[in-house]
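Researcher: I'd like a candidate sequence for this fold, 841 residues long. If you have to choose between options at a position, lean toward the conservative one.
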């Protein structure tokens, strides 16, 4: 048996975040066949790596004897089935009668019956239906293991507690808090029937332009090292020889092995260009601590090291992870990541298994992958020894996770979802994650009895929760989707009233009676992987800055609460604020913000700021890597910075020279907040010619086949009304330089826009992206006149209709020869959800 060193609880640690359902890159290989070979630049040398070890209780004699007996009774088909994981959106319980699969998952946009806001009871019923079908199979009857991305609480289920994302938890610097969050998350996941979460994320994000920065605790691996063990122990508890996890605990998965946070230019699923020593010093981070704590699984990364995909690098997955790191659990791949390996597809990839992947996450390609893997095992392309090794590791995790026992005492106890105890813990986490960047004139804490104006998006729990919340990208949520939550506005209102004051919510910052202080809440809107990648860190929306400057000009002291998944260049906003708080993505317990910024009835602060930056705050908007210890390190606010009431300091006026031009482009946003987003422009055409309007506000085609004018939607003049005269073909198009939407198409993103039918078309209306077009005439005719609605069309539908998604220069083209008037706004790419459609071409 493996010997291991003692585990000091608070010397270790971990976190929660998901990556799983990263719908990506179905059949596309991103490296050449030559790069599939491990060479000097991609070969790991085990002797250089530090030592760790899974606890001996993971592979104790009783567990291994049980596995030996089970393996001896399993058919080849049953063994191969253990290696395949399918998504609930692409498999039914009935499929298990034919296919002896070993695992299912609920990916980012997958849910019972496709209802992303399904009640918790439906999640329980789904888990039980799959387990019942699995148990009814003849043969060895190995139970399924069911995984889910519970990455900041059980973020898939309505009513669950949503904790701050990892970036906020990193600012808290509190390993014991992390352990308690892991425990609460495990209880809520177990209550709904899942066995396994794809977390903690142990990435060390080194370029904040990466859209997954908020999944990391810190740019510096010291925080990951401190958190990995406590999070693992919170989720799983301590492993015990001959015993499964205690009820209310679930299996964890350290991810994404390795260097997912180190990709060049912060490109998601990109390439880490660096030395093996950098892998060890920076990106190995918390993995040894998680392994020592007994983490049951490790998820391999989508990304590459010096051009070789991690999912195919046997020197890391086998020689290092199974060697000096001493990991005895299972290695699972990410969402169809095996299909990116040279010579592989989503439907066939012996290379990944032979490199050390034990379980292939094949959400929608599981049927052909099972058949092909079975054929490869029969032919010897995957050896019997390698197959048995992978199955043994999977069975080991299933035994330790308690899947062979009948009782599930926590399952179905939905009272634990959003329980008062868990909400109080989340509120504590919010308080501890806040970082005070500026506090001039003692504006904070807000005094007792004050008249307080609250502006911006303070009453939006969805924005405060960010991505990976009910949906993959976290979009489309309303406060009604968080029945146990409290918005930042509600928390402030409650605290101000308790202190004898008054609070008024005014999103645009207008007021009839001059307030004593204004709190403006603003920041990034939700996003998840690759949709969140940026070219610069310039915070672009103009409305919050205009509101702050208007309030300041009126003599109203201003407090900014900035919601973001990364540090951003916000110097103008900081200058326009008397106080500025980095609140990150706090989740459903907005009252935690009020706990710190609003004084009690006695006029004293109820809680002080304690959070400090775990990511360096940029001096310019360029967004190039800015990490403690690197050459030329010159941040606006350094790693570890954070003011408090006990530790005040003055902040001089900051430079408002961003360091970038305004010409950076958006791949996924076209008409947003009433503006055509650079580098895109709007053109109007008919059979007589063309006219362009760079801002897309007004325009008339030469023969008046179509005209455009501003209309009000979500805000004043945020939409455009398109009036087609009929009698000739007329076109309204968004134009720009060709952009590659391959990842977005394979990830099943959608072309999304709000629309209002003002005069319906009698016939065909073509909506095109590039050369591929679909007919939305019937959809427009079926919409109530004058009502704003949302239409989302999957990019794969345009691809099937002929769009070259690798070179899209017209992402939105609306064409008809009929008379109609339709208004549109918020034209952009968005996550696939339950309302996404695929009209006929």
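Model: Candidate sequence:
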């Amino acid at each position: 048996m493996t010997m291991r060193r003692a585990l000091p609880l608070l010397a270790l640690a971990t976190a929660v975040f998901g990556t799983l359902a990263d719908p990506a890159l179905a059949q596309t290989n991103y490296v050449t066949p030559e790069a599939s070979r491990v060479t000097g630049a991609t070969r790991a040398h085990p002797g250089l790596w530090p030592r760790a070890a899974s606890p001996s209780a993971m592979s104790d004699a009783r567990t291994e004897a049980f596995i030996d007996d089970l393996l001896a009774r399993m058919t080849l088909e049953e063994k191969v089935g253990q290696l395949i994981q399918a998504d609930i959106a692409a498999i039914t319980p009935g499929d298990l009668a034919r296919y002896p699969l070993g695992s299912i998952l609920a990916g980012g946009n997958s849910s019972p019956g496709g209802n992303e806001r399904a009640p918790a009871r439906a999640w329980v019923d789904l888990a039980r239906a799959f387990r019942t079908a699995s148990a009814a199979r003849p043969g060895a009857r190995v139970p399924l293991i069911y995984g889910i991305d519970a990455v900041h609480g059980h973020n898939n289920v309505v009513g669950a507690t949503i904790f701050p994302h990892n970036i906020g938890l990193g600012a808290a610097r509190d390993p014991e808090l992390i352990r308690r969050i892991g425990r609460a998350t495990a209880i809520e996941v177990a209550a709904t029937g899942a066995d396994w979460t794809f977390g903690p994320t142990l990435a060390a994000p080194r370029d904040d332009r990466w859209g997954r920065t908020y999944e990391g605790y810190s740019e510096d691996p010291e925080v990951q090292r401190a958190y990995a063990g406590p999070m693992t122990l919170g989720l799983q508890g301590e492993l015990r020889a001959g015993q499964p996890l205690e009820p209310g605990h679930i299996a964890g998965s350290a991810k994404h092995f390795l260097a997912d946070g180190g990709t060049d230019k912060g490109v998601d699923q990109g390439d880490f260009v660096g030395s093996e020593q950098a892998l060890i010093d920076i990106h190995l981070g918390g993995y040894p601590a998680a392994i020592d704590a007994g983490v049951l699984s490790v998820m391999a990364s989508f990304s590459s090291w010096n051009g070789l995909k991690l999912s195919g690098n046997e020197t890391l997955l086998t020689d290092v992870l199974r060697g000096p790191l001493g990991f005895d659990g299972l290695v699972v791949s990410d969402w169809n990541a095996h299909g990116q390996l040279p010579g592989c597809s989503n439907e066939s990839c012996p290379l990944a298994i032979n490199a050390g992947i034990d379980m292939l996450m094949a959400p929608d390609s599981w049927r052909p992958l099972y058949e092909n893997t079975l054929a490869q095992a029969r032919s010897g392309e995957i050896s019997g020894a390698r197959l048995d090794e992978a199955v043994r590791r999977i069975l080991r995790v299933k035994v330790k996770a308690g899947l062979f026992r009948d009782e599930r005492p926590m399952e179905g106890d939905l009272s634990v979802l959003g329980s008062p105890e868990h909400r109080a813990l989340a509120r504590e986490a919010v308080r501890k994650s806040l970082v005070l960047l500026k506090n001039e004139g003692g504006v904070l804490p807000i005094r007792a009895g004050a008249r307080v104006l609250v502006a911006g998006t303070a009453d939006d729990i969805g924005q405060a929760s960010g991505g990976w919340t009910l949906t993959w990208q976290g979009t489309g949520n309303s406060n009604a989707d968080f029945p146990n939550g409290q918005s930042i506005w509600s928390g402030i209102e409650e605290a101000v009233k308790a202190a004898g004051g008054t609070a008024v919510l005014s999103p645009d910052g207008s007021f009839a009676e001059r307030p004593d202080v204004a709190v403006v809440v603003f920041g990034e809107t939700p996003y998840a992987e690759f949709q969140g990648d940026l070219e610069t860190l310039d915070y672009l929306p103009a409305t919050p800055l205009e509101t702050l400057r208007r309030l300041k000009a009126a003599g109203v002291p201003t407090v900014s609460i900035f919601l973001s998944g990364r540090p951003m260049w916000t110097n103008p906003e900081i200058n326009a604020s008397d106080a500025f708080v980095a609140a990150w993505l706090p989740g459903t317990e907005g009252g935690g913000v009020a706990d710190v910024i609003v004084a009690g009835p006695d006029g004293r602060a109820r809680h002080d700021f304690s959070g400090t930056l775990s990511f360096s705050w940029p001096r310019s908007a360029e967004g190039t890597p800015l990490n403690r210890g690197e050459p030329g390190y010159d941040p606006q606010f350094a790693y570890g910075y954070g003011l408090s009431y006990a530790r005040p300091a003055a902040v001089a006026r900051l430079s408002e020279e961003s360091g970038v031009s305004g010409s950076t482009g958006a791949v996924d946003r076209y008409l947003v907040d009433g503006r055509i987003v650079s580098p895109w422009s709007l053109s109007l055409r008919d059979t007589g010619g063309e006219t362009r309007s760079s801002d897309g506000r007004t325009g008339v085609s030469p023969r008046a086949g179509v005209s455009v004018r501003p209309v009000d939607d979500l805000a004043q003049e945020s939409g455009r009304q398109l009036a087609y005269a009929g009698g000739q073909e007329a076109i309204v198009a968004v134009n720009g330089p060709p952009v590659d939407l391959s990842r977005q198409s394979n990830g099943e993103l959608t072309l999304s826009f709000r629309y209002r039918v003002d005069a319906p078309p009698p016939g065909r209306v073509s909506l095109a992206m590039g050369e591929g077009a679909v007919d939305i005439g019937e959809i427009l005719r079926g919409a109530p006149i004058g009502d704003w609605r949302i239409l989302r069309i999957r990019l794969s539908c345009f691809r099937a209709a002929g769009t070259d998604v690798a070179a899209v220069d017209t992402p939105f083209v609306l064409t008809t020869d009929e008379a109609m008037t339709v208004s549109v706004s918020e034209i952009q790419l968005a996550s696939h959800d339950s309302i996404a459609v695929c009209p006929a071409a």
